[in-house]
Amino acid sequence: MTIKEAFDTMEYGPAPESAAEALAWLVDGGDRFGHFIDGAFTAPGDGFESRNPATGEVLATLSQATQSDVDAAVSAARKAQGKWAKLGGHGRAKYLYALARLVQKHSRLFAVLETLDNGKPIRESRDIDVPLVHRHFYYHAGLAQLMESELPGHEPLGVCGQIIPWNFPLLMLAWKVAPALAAGNTVVLKPAEYTSLTALLFADICREAGLPKGVVNIVTGDGAVGEMIVSHPDIDKIAFTGSTEVGRHIRRATAGSGKALTLELGGKSPYIVFDDADIDSAVEGLVDAIWFNQGQVCCAGSRLLVQEGIAERFHTKLRARMDGLRIGDPLDKCIDVGAVVDPVQLQRITDLVDAHGNEGEVHRAACPLPEGCFYPPTLITGLSPASPLMQEEIFGPVLVGTTFRTPAEAVQLANNTRYGLAATVWTENINLALDVAPKLVAGVVWVNATNMFDAAAEFGGVRESGFGREGGWDGLHAYLKPATKTKRLKQLLPVDKPAEPEVTDPLDRTAKLYIGGKQARPDSGYSRAVHGPRGQLLGHMGLGSRKDIRNAVEAARGASGWAGGTGHLRAQILYYVAENLSARRTEFSGRLHGLTGQHTRTTEAEVDAAIARLFTYAAWADKYDGAAHSVPIRGVALAMKEPVGVIGALCPDEMPLLGLVSVMAPAIAMGNRCVLVPSEPYPLAATDFYQVLDTSDVPGGVVNIVTGSHAELAPTLASHMDVDAVWSFSSTDLSAVIETEAAGNLKRSWVNNRRNRDWMGPEGEGRAFLRAATEVKTIWVPYGE
Amino acid sequence: MNSSTKVTPDATTGTGQTTLPQVTHTRNPGLPLDMDWVRGAQANRSAIERRTATLPGRRSVKKDYQAAWLLKAITCIDLTTLAGDDTEDRVRRLCAKARQPVRPDLLQALGMGPIHTGAVCVYHDMVATAVDALQGTGIPVAAVSTGFPAGLSPFHLRVAEIGESVQAGAEEIDIVISRRHVLTGNWQALYDEMREFRAACGAAHVKAILATGELGSLRNVARASLVCMMAGADFIKTSTGKESVNATLPVSLVMIRAIRDYHERTGFRVGYKPAGGISKAKDSLVYLSLIKDELGNRWLQPDLFRFGASSLLGDIERQLEHNVTGAYSAAWRHPAG
């Protein structure tokens, strides 16, 4: 085209970024790569080809890790870990800082290599991915530096197995490696098989930084290698980002192993546009929401909800905007949408849209589509929530949508999903925005913006989008544990029925279940006699069953008003519970003495500790503050501490009153509702306790108590789809079954792995409980008039 | 800008003299003030800034395309002198530069015929001189008017000033709005004022200068843009060049989105002129890509887009020579204006 012709047509023309340096780096590596283990690359082994999705060209041949490779990586990590942790916060900070600087120095090489390998536009890898990586290491150098003074009493988990996806290969590496290293862990990381190259370049950088050998180990390969990491006995934690399906599998595979686990999974995030929004900006926001990285973004705003009155105008503007998108060579600096990562993914997207697109009105962007692994930006409007396209994660540049009438309906539709990763809200009305944001079931909410990320702001999901947060102080906690010594917990069994029951008082007192603020007989119609240590008959415990759990969960779900109340109100009620318990101190002490046969001094101490614990959480109820993070925008990123929802808990067996209170009080202080299964051998303290609850203005349904067999009730509680978290401090070995069953809806679980906890001591209360009782929701509110 | 009655299709692709494209769109007649529309206009600053901040990273024009775009930018420049020390000779020099903005040897090397700037923009007293100097070139003279830059002289004098400039041969009148009408939300007063200015212009085209740096918020910019278009503005323009903040990308985005909205709803095309602060060739490319992406190619012609600039041309000339020779250029190698 001549200049004259270009002058007349005003086309953009090609603006290619050179791939020369990145290709030279591959050639330097011989175009064949081994694993990075113990500070060195292994000889390339049998493996697979890594291709440029935009052209289909082979970029390099990578090695498929074997069990012995993984073993070697884990053992190198194990060997390095103690020394790495002992290096101290400042020592580790120096290395993280060096990594940050090296990423910055090689930023264009990383960006070009990422684009070659993944197919994302160079603009994104250059302007978004790599700068965020750099920022992540910087930020975590700071966390390492401050950790010892700010988080005393914590220690690293040990060796972390980290499995990352192909959509943000280097960025997800940074999100995994930086906090793990900052906290003093060592890692074995497996990049996705489609996109391992920048991880290998990062390995190179680790050597340039002089990182001690074995601190970072990188093994390449497919899901089988991931499986080896997940099931490796010498790994202490698994961190996974990827599909919900694989996340669920990992939850089951690690159940009961004692491995810590964080999962960052799929999403179908709503993008809500109210009728008073800046419509043009909301349309433009969708370019960053669903046409960012070809829509291969776990938190992509993929479900468009537009208020009915503006829907037609909005969709018209949106279609026009789509037609202006430029799709093509990812290395072109003038491209909006690049290549889909692999033909397999392209086929998946194509099949989903072909199968269900006709349920709505399909608009494909009018931009020319290059040959190869490309999918056109697509909008499908007029879908009903029942359409699979509105429910399933497409993971491609396909936006689906429907309309709503009122804010309440917007929230209802937004939350009508199994996922809960992110949400976007557009309105110029601050009242509306700040009313809707807390109601959205999501870990991240963007107001008048979308897909904003920063190392200082927690990111992560709820529901089947996973659990755990990445970024911020909360993200660091995912790589730490309390530095306390624990012992194996011995199972406490109920006192056997004596040959001749001793009845001390013939006047019967019937202990029932406590559901929805009412005493309820067990659905089973069965009871179990409870005997004191010397065989005296103390009463009967209703044998709760799955039906009772169902009813209790329903009551808890119904008491959602508790979450919306103020911390001050919850504090008042907790103080009132303490007051009423204190009034019955002698009686409870006697009950505990009767159940356990412990000395009265001991049982009095337990009651006093329970009263103190109620005070502790009454105190916390209005003090466990969120944060306004210092993120690099004009605006605020609010970290709101929200209740988890409905928490099911198997209470400690050994301290029938204090154990129950220790679990219940943090849960309800933070606005959760709970279903408690009290001490199995000593249940009658709990059934006395519901009378205290009854007289203390605790609203019905906030605390529900179902007595019975832990082993029998745990699976029901853990598998219940309407329970948001399950805790177990039971002396029965239930960790494996709970974690397995929790995989169903990927609820958070907190289990004791049959290790003890000193309920009388400081580890019996505090921030660990509060963290378990809350979800951090990050609400991004950019501002400016 | 030529009169809207002359319709010569596709003038830009003719050989030889690359003339201004003739106006082929119907002139915006305006419409009754629609307060629902005005009040419904929103402009979210953070989102708008994000769009404009990322645009230069999304759009890149290289090599020959870049040269072509820079030539296009020149044809869209209102070459301007608005200084108290302007003299007739100074204005004549400027007009000569407008007629021949790029060295002929460079144009030849680029394979381009002659081009000229979009207009020459002066104060009223220099209109006659400029009209004379541009005789037969097809380059219109634009006059800043209505008590430019503050617009606080008596209203009847402001209206009369338009008439005088039209009388003197100005084909385009750049009026300034009363910022106080925007700041007090008196949209009716703004509409009435603009209506009268438009009427006074007659066949001359009217550019409404919003002085966006003094309007307080992007929302006000959006609303003032709509009101001026409803009152019949042919162009909306950011600034006088005298405010402390002149043309910016966020302000431009707000104004061109208002233009787009106006076109979508009424079918009439209104032009856009950012003025002040655009002095680098690279900046002009970003502006052109913003126009192209938000409004479409139709707006990339001088009948719908102008740069109000005085030093931009010099930087573009240097870039064009670099394109031809591969060596970075120097200002003194290009004729002064």
Q: Beta-strand percentage of chain B?
A: 5-15%
Low-confidence stretches of chain A: none
Ends apart, CA distance between termini of chain A: 44 Å
The biggest beta sheet of chain A is recorded as: 10 strands, mixed
List segments of chain B where confidence is low: pLDDT < 50 over at least 5 consecutive residues: 1-21
Explain what the structure shows.
The complex is a heterodimer of chains A (785) and B (337). Chain A contains 27 helices and 33 strands. With 785 residues, chain A is an alpha/beta fold. In chain A, the strands form 8 sheets. In chain A, strands 14-15-16-13-12-17-18-33-27-26 form a 10-stranded mixed sheet, sandwiched between helices. Chain A has a 6-stranded mixed sheet with strand order 9-8-7-10-11-19, with helices on both faces. In chain A, helix 24 links the parallel strand 29 (673-677) and strand 30 (703-705). The radius of gyration of chain A is 28 Å and the shape is globular. Chain A starts with a helix and ends with a strand. Chain B is of the alpha/beta class. Chain B is built from 13 helices and 8 strands. Chain B has an 8-stranded parallel sheet with strand order 7-6-5-4-3-2-1-8. In chain B, helix 11 links the parallel strand 6 (235-237) and strand 7 (271-273). In chain B, helix 3 runs antiparallel to helix 13, helix 7 packs parallel to helix 9 and helix 11 (249-266) packs parallel to helix 12 (281-294). Chain B starts with 34 loop residues before the first helix and ends in a 12-residue tail after the last helix. The interface between A and B is large, with 43 and 45 residues.
Helices, strands, pairings?
The complex is a heterodimer of chains A (785) and B (337).
Chain A: H1 3-9, H2 20-28, E1 32-33, E2 36-37, E3 40-41, E4 47-51, E5 58-63, H3 67-86, H4 88-105, H5 107-118, H6 122-150, E6 154-156, E7 159-163, H7 169-182, E8 186-190, H8 197-208, E9 216-218, H9 223-230, E10 237-241, H10 244-254, E11 260-264, E12 269-273, H11 279-289, E13 301-307, H12 308-323, H13 343-356, E14 361-364, E15 378-381, H14 388-391, E16 398-404, H15 407-414, E17 422-426, H16 430-439, E18 444-447, E19 466-467, H17 472-477, E20 480-482, E21 502-503, E22 513-515, E23 518-520, E24 527-531, E25 536-542, H18 546-558, H19 561-564, H20 567-583, H21 585-596, H22 600-621, E26 627-629, E27 635-643, E28 646-650, H23 658-669, E29 673-677, H24 684-694, E30 703-705, H25 710-719, E31 725-728, H26 735-742, E32 748-751, H27 767-772, E33 774-782
Helix pairs in contact in A: 4-6, 5-6, 6-7, 10-26, 11-12, 20-22, 21-22, 22-23, 25-26
Chain B: H1 35-40, H2 45-58, H3 63-75, E1 77-80, H4 88-99, H5 104-109, E2 119-122, H6 127-133, E3 141-144, H7 155-167, E4 172-176, H8 179-183, H9 187-201, E5 205-209, H10 218-230, E6 235-237, H11 249-266, E7 271-273, H12 281-294, E8 307-309, H13 312-325
